[in-house]
Write a structure and sequence with these properties.
By secondary structure, this protein is an alpha/beta fold. It has 2 domains: about 150 residues, 3-Layer(bba) Sandwich (Glucose Oxidase, domain 1); about 45 residues, no CATH class. A hairpin with a 2-residue loop joins strand 7 and strand 8. The longest helix has 23 residues. The protein is elongated and about 65 Å long. The chain starts with a helix and ends with a helix.
């Protein structure tokens, strides 16, 4: 069942998912986070990591994000909250290699990431708020893995669903994924029909009139 949901999710872009989220009153898309390494849409289940400034108080030598990679499954996406304000990478090259070897779909960092050229050479998708050369060592550390994180203004839980592409990032709560997919597929089908009409010569003003503007209304959602 989960794989079927993921297959359906992977066929939809972030804009369509965002429109469906708007229609259902779910948190809006997160903007300002973009692909850094390879231009590839990613879709999957979330594995969360939370980072904090400073060094581990107990002297732990476990590197940030390693536990998330080890517990994630193929197709999962690591989501890292690095909102410390410290210019230090919440993700790097060895992590990209490890994640790729385990079959992860990509990583999304609310904050900086580094070793972007290495990730690009690997073909591993890194989405982040920004990039930096500065190491995490001595600057930031992991305080939680598997706990809720905040990306943009959205609270994201471990196991939620996410789609990211060049337009933005959209998170979907687990409990609402089937409802959202049904709405997104209706929207996608209607937009595809409108695109076909435009390419067939129908005036764009006519196509993008009431049919488009009212697409997300309750009346249109029920059809």
């Amino acid at each position: 069942m989960t794989q079927t949901l993921l297959d359906r999710l992977g066929r939809l872009d972030a804009c369509c998912i965002s429109d469906a989220a708007d229609q259902l009153g779910l948190p809006p898309a997160v903007t300002g986070i973009g692909w850094q390494s390879v231009r590839r849409r990613i879709a999957g289940r979330v594995t969360t990591v939370t980072l904090a400034p400073g060094t581990p108080p107990n002297g732990s030598h476990r590197h940030l994000c390693t536990s998330a990679i080890e517990r994630a499954g193929p197709g999962d996406i690591v989501v890292v909250e690095q909102r410390t304000g410290v210019d230090a990478a919440g993700w790097g090259g060895i992590l990209s290699n490890a994640a790729q070897m385990r079959g992860l779909a990509g990583v999304i960092v609310e904050g900086p990431a580094r070793d972007i050229d290495e990730a690009a050479e690997l073909g591993f998708p890194v989405y982040s708020r920004s990039t930096t050369c500065r190491t995490a060592r001595g600057r930031i550390f992991e305080i939680a893995s598997g706990e809720p994180v905040t990306v943009g203004d959205t609270l994201v839980s471990d196991g939620d669903y996410v789609v990211a592409d060049s337009s933005g990032v959209v998170f979907v709560p687990t409990a609402r994924i089937e409802e959202l997919l049904a709405a997104a597929e209706r929207i996608s089908a209607r937009e595809a029909a409108m695109t076909e009409a435009v390419r067939a010569g129908e005036p764009v003003g006519q196509v993008m009139g009431a049919r488009y503007e009212n697409m997300l209304s309750e009346t249109e959602a029920a059809q």
